[in-house]
Design goal:
Distance between the termini: 55 Å
Oligomer: single chain
Mean pLDDT: 83
Radius of gyration: 20 Å
Length: 150
């Protein structure tokens, strides 16, 4: 049975179940013994991470969030992925700069439908949305293409 727990902001229900996981909730926040659940909720609700311009190589750190944005400004950008969690889905919104025609070299751990990486939309200021499911060792990619950004 929940018992009231006072914080400076309000009173919320504090739980002490046998497994000791969920401690309480308040205004959509969940509190756990080690804050793991709250951290995952914060990650899901995190804003898009802006990686800026690509240059010739860029590391996309998925520990910084699930949604990423990257402007392609080099003829080819070699991407590296870091910080993923197994079983999670990540996205990258790739935007061509005003010149367009930029390409990407994907990490070898990325698997595409039919085994073939997509050809990016090449027009100036066009964008492609890449979605990846991370299995623990592979990124399974899918995509939507040719979005106008202006």
């Amino acid at each position: 049975m929940p018992t009231p727990f006072n914080t400076p902001e309000t009173t919320f229900n504090r739980f002490t179940p046998n497994d000791g996981n969920l401690l309480g909730s308040e205004f959509g926040r969940l509190y756990t013994n080690d804050n793991t659940l709250q951290s995952e909720i914060d990650e899901i609700n995190a804003p898009e991470f802006d990686n800026g311009n690509s240059g010739a190589s860029k590391t996309i750190n998925f520990a910084l969030g699930y949604a990423h944005r990257l402007v392609l400004d080099s003829s080819n950008c070699t991407l590296t992925f870091s910080g993923p969690k197994s079983g999670k889905v990540y996205s990258i919104f790739l935007i061509q700069d005003t010149a367009g025609g930029r390409t990407v070299t994907w990490p070898s751990s990325v698997v595409w439908p039919g085994g073939v990486a997509p050809i990016l939309s090449s027009g100036a200021n066009k964008a492609d949305l890449m979605i990846f499911y991370y299995s623990g060792s592979k990124y399974y990619g899918s995509y939507s293409q040719n979005y106008a950004t202006t």
